[in-house]
């Protein structure tokens, strides 16, 4: 079966899912066979009833998934007619969506490795509707790349946005030297530990004890033949090395072929991916600001990432995956990209400020010193609580743990105190032209530039410590990005003045003025 995309009128297009989806659907039951072969390899050719039951359930699941794919192929039709995009699908329970093109807020084109093998892709349209993810998005899974490109072009042309960009061209593209930032993340180590836990759980469910495997027993014997400190050190180094390798491979997979382009019609398009490719389109007139993220290891190396604060990317999880404008890049490159995306704004009639100046942290107001004391107090409290765990166990199990607790406390106090000072230095805020700027964070410093006309309300929170010391957290609520961006640990007078300056009159009914 082949796909068709026929012209039914000067602006009308129609089509159905690609017949190549049949091959993808029929390939689903092959996974249990591969797992069966892998289990035989791990166990040395031995098997048991539990393994057969597990693989049989996986085979049944694969058949069901393949059948669902085939039914979707046979029943899904779509078309663009006039100013609407229509999709109908379903065998027993048939559904139909009719969406005005002007309601399409985001276009996401993704192709995982199996789709790429057959020349297919998935097109996802976010409509910004109310309710769950199914109500906010329409998904076409299994269309060809040419169909996806043609649909995206027609949808962008069909919207009467009136926000055409002044230029069309590449803003940023992949530089191989950025690979040096790939290992500077803690998520690589976390992925190694998560993978080890997943493997252990899977083998346990199949009634296979990992400790009985020959490779594991050999490692245990080698570990027992060396001093404990040396074995722990080697284990930590091995996990870190695997984490670095995992982070590097993840960077290569996620960001190969990266390109940030300003397309016609005022659309920012991010394209990236090696095995699983993804293309995300964002309308510039829906952009509410930018976020510069500098995790601690990346900040030490002079790197950063740039995110968009925008609407039209789906729910919170979809937003976090689709809002990324750059990978880990030199901070100067991230600021250069920001300067091209954010239009200049004039704060005082003297100079124009673009994204580079707004995210550069120059001119941000400092926060009260009591905010530093609060962070130092939290660091000392955390050090004592962590050190108290082995020390308390040592009162029953032996003096060795008491010594371990004392050493842990002595190490944590300077480390966490340094992080507290770093978190305080990250604090800052300002109103600069059309934008509200806020900065915060200890492990990952975040500098957010938010359009003042995109703020729809204020969220003020105060903990007991903040009430006693005259501090508050001022949260700018917006429909874009994370939904709320906070100015943390600012004095009451300065926070309320900031809110009144950014959005005059919004808090006036709730403020009692004193001479």
Summarize the structure.
With 515 residues, this protein is an alpha+beta fold.
Task: Report what the structure shows.
It is a single chain. Strand 20 (471-478) and strand 21 (484-491) form a beta hairpin. The protein is 44% helix and 26% strand. The protein starts with a strand and ends in a 13-residue tail after the last helix. By secondary structure, it is α+β, with helices and mostly antiparallel strands. Residues 1-11 and 161-166 have low confidence and may be disordered.
Radius of gyration over all CA atoms, rounded: 28 Å
Number of helices: 17
How much helicity do the residues have?
40-55%
Question: Could you say which overall geometry the principal axes of the C-alpha atoms support?
Answer: globular
Query: Sheet with the most strands?
Result: 7 strands, antiparallel
- Look at the helices and sheets and give the structural class: alpha+beta
**Strand line-up of the largest beta sheet:** 8-7-6-12-11-10-9
Parts with pLDDT < 50 across at least 5 consecutive residues: 1-11, 161-166
Amino-to-carboxy terminus distance: 79 Å
Number of strands: 21
């Amino acid at each position: 079966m082949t796909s068709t995309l026929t012209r039914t009128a000067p602006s009308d297009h129609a089509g159905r899912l690609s017949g190549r989806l049949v091959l993808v659907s029929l390939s689903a039951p092959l996974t249990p066979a591969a797992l069966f072969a892998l289990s035989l390899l791990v166990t040395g050719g031995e098997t048991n009833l539990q393994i057969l039951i597990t693989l049989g359930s996986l085979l049944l699941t694969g058949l069901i998934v393949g059948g669902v794919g085939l039914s979707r192929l046979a029943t899904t039709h779509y078309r663009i007619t006039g100013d609407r995009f229509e999709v109908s699908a379903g065998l027993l329970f048939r559904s139909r969506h009719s969406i005005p093109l002007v309601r399409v807020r985001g276009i996401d084109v993704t192709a995982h490795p199996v789709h790429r093998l057959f020349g297919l892709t998935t097109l996802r349209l976010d409509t910004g509707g109310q309710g769950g993810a199914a109500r906010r998005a329409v998904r076409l899974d299994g269309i060809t790349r040419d169909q996806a490109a043609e649909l995206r072009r027609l949808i962008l042309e069909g919207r009467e946005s009136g926000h055409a960009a002044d230029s069309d061209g590449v803003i940023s593209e992949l530089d191989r030297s950025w690979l040096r930032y790939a290992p500077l993340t803690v998520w690589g180590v976390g992925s190694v530990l998560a993978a080890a836990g997943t493997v252990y759980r899977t083998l346990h469910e199949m009634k296979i004890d990992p400790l009985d495997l020959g490779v594991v027993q050999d490692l245990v014997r080698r570990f027992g033949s060396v001093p404990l400190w040396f074995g722990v050190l080697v284990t930590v180094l091995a996990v870190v090395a695997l984490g670095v390798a995992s982070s590097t491979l993840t960077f290569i997979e996620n960001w190969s072929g990266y390109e940030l382009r300003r397309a016609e019609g005022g659309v920012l398009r991010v394209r990236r991916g090696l095995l699983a490719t993804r293309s995300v389109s964002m309308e510039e007139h829906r952009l509410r600001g930018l976020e510069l993220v500098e995790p601690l290891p990346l900040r030490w190396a002079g790197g950063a990432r740039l995110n968009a604060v925008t609407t039209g990317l789906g729910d919170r999880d979809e937003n976090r995956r689709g809002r990324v404008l750059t990978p880990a890049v030199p901070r100067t490159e991230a600021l250069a990209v920001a300067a091209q995306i954010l239009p200049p704004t004039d704060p005082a009639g003297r100079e124009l400020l673009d994204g580079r100046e707004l995210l550069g942290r120059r001119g941000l107001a400092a926060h009260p010193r009591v905010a530093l004391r609060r962070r130092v107090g939290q660091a000392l409290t955390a050090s004592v609580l962590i050190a108290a765990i082995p020390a308390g166990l040592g009162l029953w199990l032996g003096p060795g743990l008491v010594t371990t607790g004392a050493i842990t406390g002595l190490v944590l106090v300077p480390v966490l105190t340094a992080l507290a000072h770093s978190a305080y230095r990250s604090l800052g805020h300002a109103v600069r032209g059309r934008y509200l700027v806020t900065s915060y964070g200890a492990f990952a410093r975040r500098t957010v530039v938010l359009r003042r006309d995109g703020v729809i309300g204020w969220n003020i929170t105060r903990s007991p410590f903040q009430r006693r010391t005259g501090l508050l957290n001022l949260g700018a609520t917006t429909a874009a990005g994370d939904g709320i961006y906070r100015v943390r640990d600012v004095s009451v007078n300065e926070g309320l003045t900031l809110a009144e300056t950014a959005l005059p009159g919004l808090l006036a009914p709730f403020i009692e003025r004193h001479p």
